[in-house]
Amino acid sequence: MKALQGFMEKHFIPVATRISANKWIQSISRGTMSLMGIIIVGAIFSLLNSIGIPAYQTFLKGTGLANFLSFVPAVTINAIALYMVFLIAYQAAHMFGKPELGVNVGVIALVSFLTLVPLQIKTPKGALQAITSMNVDYIGSRGAFTAIITAMIVTTVYLWIVKKNWVIHMPDGVPSQVSKSFTDIIPAFVILALFALIRWGFSATSYVSATDFIYKILQTPIENLTGSLPSFIILIILAQLLWFFGIHGSFTILPILMPIWIGYINSNMAAYHAGRPIPHMFNIEMYNMLAIGGAGGTLGFVIVMLLFAKSQQYKKMARLVILPGLFNINEPLIFGLPIILNPVLFIPFVFTPVLILLLGYALMVTGIVGVPIGLFLPASTPIVISGIMQGSWTYAVWQVVAVLISCLTYYPFFKILDKTALEDETNAALLKEAD
């Protein structure tokens, strides 16, 4: 354990700390997390439209509710990249010390992103004029990485121009809102000219658009790399090791994976709606499945502590952490028990999520348990409720089974802790009586 701790402190933790503290990583993380509300609302409407009961579907189609329920997903989940580019640029302006320019940067990033979207010009038979339309695939999950890159470029160029003071200054007395609008003119012109050139350059290639290039060269390979069982296991172990040594593992891993998981939403929802298998199994809910009760899958640990603790120390601790644990909050347990740097709990804390992953994967591959859709639900959503919202009652049942597995893995290690604590309490009581 000392050798592992020394290796982690020397080679691994400094790198993880730099990653989690990186301003761009934090901007992407905060920007994508801000999307949770519209994703949840869009998903609820989509789920209501996708319930696979024949009589229910007949009712929806007969009453026209099927079309009504499809409107909200079309402008939320199916247009997710539009909101990503604005929110990431907005958060980046805050992270780089220019919060007053957040809206300005966000709007220009949005316009720059739309500049890259291919337009289709068609003249329907009998029409008096041509119709220009936008391919909505480019503003949905397909454009997620383009949104991130666009937000980064726009924020960098905009803040650089402002730093150089290459902006139009209005006289004193002009309202600040009017003055700010003139501040945008030079940065907006330079940035949009740049993105127009990028669009024109890619239109002359076989990729046709920058979005297609980024999707094929960057987004798809990364999705394939992180979408396998071995890579997912490695990511989980890395996150758990960071947690064990006192670094917020989720803050290090999740910002890297969130854009990828957002890219899964459209295709997973489309497959669910059509009654087909979920194409992207290793999504955000698979990660949440391993963190039932919090990192390390500690809800089972808390239940074991509540039911079997004999020492006063752990009886009191169990009463304190059971309610947060039900909502997947376990920082009081990790830092208060503590779990971090506790050699007795190293094995169950790091490897319980891996065990749950392997068993869950086997059950999903064999069709016994439904694959979760991968909706972005609040991390505090309790089990069963989150399972049903992920599209499968069998997955909700599996969440309960996962908690029981957690109980079994943590039980023998907790008994060691409890026995030691009970002996210490007994000895302390004897010494007090002797005095």
From TrEMBL:
GO molecular function per UniProt: protein-N(PI)-phosphohistidine-sugar phosphotransferase activity
Keywords: Cell membrane, Membrane, Sugar transport, Transferase, Transmembrane, Transmembrane helix, Transport
Membrane topology qualifier: Multi-pass membrane protein
Subcellular location: Cell membrane
Domain PTS EIIC type-3: 8-413
Regions crossing the membrane: 33-56, 68-89, 101-121, 141-161, 182-202, 228-246, 253-274, 286-308, 320-340, 395-413
Keyword Cell membrane: yes
Predominant localisation class: membrane
Protein's job: The phosphoenolpyruvate-dependent sugar phosphotransferase system (PTS), a major carbohydrate active -transport system, catalyzes the phosphorylation of incoming sugar substrates concomitant with their translocation across the cell membrane.
PANTHER family per record: PTHR33989, PTS SYSTEM N,N'-DIACETYLCHITOBIOSE-SPECIFIC EIIC COMPONENT
Protein name: Permease IIC component
Species name: Schleiferilactobacillus perolens DSM 12744
